[in-house]
């Protein structure tokens, strides 16, 4: 014979008892509605299935719905917390990247300033070379004029040399 468990409830107290032949009697009290709850488990007649009345079914559905609501809430809170952590990490990475890019931008600005300085120095060197070129052109002009004068002097000296030779040959004739 299977074990039978039954709950009988009144408006003020509920008594739980089992088959005294199999198990000792256990009693407890709880406040319940005026409606009586009947819960019976017949393991031998229905193959171990639990039979419940309509209020019990609605109670099980309510407990299941409340459990699901709690689980969904806990899952949602857990996922929200994880998403917040991921968002915080992404924000941290974003901040770090912004800082690094700002440093890179500063370095580029420094390099740009250095290039501008080098460019200015090259412009100064170019101006100096232009000045040196102008000086060399003036020196070339002077050398050209000097060369012309030296050529003129050479021509005169050649003329004077011929005249001196002529005078020498006339003053000191060679004996022939």
From TrEMBL:
| Transmembrane residue ranges | 57-75
Superkingdom in the source lineage: Bacteria
Tell me which UniProt keywords the record has, alphabetically: Membrane, Transmembrane, Transmembrane helix
Indicate what this protein is called per its UniProt record. Uncharacterized protein
- Species per Swiss-Prot/TrEMBL record: Leucobacter insecticola
């Amino acid at each position: 014979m299977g074990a039978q468990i039954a709950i009988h409830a009144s408006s003020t107290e509920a008594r739980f008892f089992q088959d005294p032949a199999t198990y000792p009697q256990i009693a407890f009290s709880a406040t319940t509605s005026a409606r009586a709850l009947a819960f019976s488990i017949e393991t031998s007649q229905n193959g171990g299935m639990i039979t419940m009345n309509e209020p019990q079914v609605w109670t099980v559905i309510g407990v299941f719905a409340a459990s699901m609501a709690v689980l969904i809430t806990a899952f949602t809170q857990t996922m929200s917390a994880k998403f917040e952590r991921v968002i915080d990490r992404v924000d941290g990475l974003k901040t770090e990247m912004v800082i690094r890019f700002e440093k890179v931008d500063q370095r580029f600005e420094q390099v740009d300033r250095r290039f501008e300085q080098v460019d200015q120095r090259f412009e100064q060197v170019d101006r100096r070379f232009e000045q040196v070129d102008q000086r060399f052109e003036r020196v070339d002009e002077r050398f050209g004029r000097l060369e012309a004068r030296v050529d003129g002097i050479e021509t005169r000296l050649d003329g004077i040399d011929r005249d001196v030779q002529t005078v020498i040959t006339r003053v000191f004739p060679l004996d022939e």
